[in-house]
Amino acid sequence: MSLFECIKGNAYEIKGLYVEEGITRRLQALGLNDGTIVTVLNRKKDGALIIRVRGTRLAIGRHISQGIEVEEKAL
Q1: pLDDT of residue 75
Q2: Which of 11, 30, 50, 63 could form a disulfide with 41 if both were Cys (CB 3.0 to 4.6 A apart)?
Q3: Chain segment 12-38, per-residue pLDDT in tens
Q4: Residue 10 and residue 38: Cα distance in Å, rounded?
Q5: Which bin fits 66, alpha (ψ -120 to 50), beta or left (φ > 0)?
Q6: From CA 21, how far away is CA 27, in angstroms rounded?
Q7: How far is CA 54 from CA 11, 20, 45, 61, in A?
Q8: In three state form, how does the secondary structure of 18-63 look?
């Protein structure tokens, strides 16, 4: 499933980044690598997501979140 489809409050493990190369490198620099656990904190009306990655809050748009493949994880 894509990160865009995720439910607020749940934790997910990143399985792959399928966006443009420049965006992929930036996301990896921010800590979004395969195997990283992220938590969806909030969903905005315009499709943006607020996520927690390694103790840091990040906001990502719909286009990027649709290109991040995840798997649900139990905390």
Answers
A1: 62
A2: 50
A3: 999 999 999 999 999 999 999 999 999
A4: 9
A5: alpha
A6: 10
A7: 12, 23, 25, 19
A8: CCCHHHHHHHHHCCCCCCCEEEEEEECCCCCEEEEECCEEEEECHH
